[in-house]
Amino acid sequence: xxxxxxxxxxxxxTRIKIIKLLAYKAMYVCELESVLxxxxxxxxxxLKILKHANLVRDExxxxxxxxxxxxxxxxDVFSQFTGFLDMPLESLSGFEQEYERxxxxxxxxxxxxxxxxxxx
Length: 120
Known about the structure:
By secondary structure, the protein is mostly helical. 60% of the residues lie in helices and 12% in strands. It starts with a helix and ends with a helix.
């Protein structure tokens, strides 16, 4: 799962609003324009980013598209991300150096000094 792309897509407040609105009901761009009081090009750009992250689906209805939330993906993302957070650090590929460094924290003079400087 590409957490970075998903969280970047969710990292803008307008896109969070769009996600919430689409959780309420599927909508056309013109409906989102009206509700968000925003131009069609801006809405379309946000929808493009959300679609690229697979957070939003579109279904053609003639010349127009109706957008809906990919609730299954959102559920899977947060379920898997919670599992990722619960995994032991030493078992994660790509975290070997961080794990080694975290094991040495209690013996690092600079860290000890930093932690103790607030005790004065």
